[in-house]
# Entry
Amino acid sequence: MTVSSDGESEAQQTVDRDPVPNVTLLELIAIVSEYAESERELLATVVYMVNGGSVRLCGNFKGARFDLNALTERQPSCAA
# Structure
């Protein structure tokens, strides 16, 4: 067990934090879409929340993270 400089143990610090909410990807998108002003803002917010650990995905996407490198490599081509 480790004790921090203010005398609290790691276990006590963990108990004091708010738990990370578990949500499905559909629930997260529905909630964020109520406040987002564009699809771009919606996607950026969802990716930020999931990758940053603000929320934890459950259901079909349990534990998933977004690989931003994979998203930028596949640029859509414009058909003439």
The first strand starts at residue 22 and ends at 23. The longest helix spans residues 39-52. Strands lie at 22-23, 56-57. The chain has a mean pLDDT of 81.
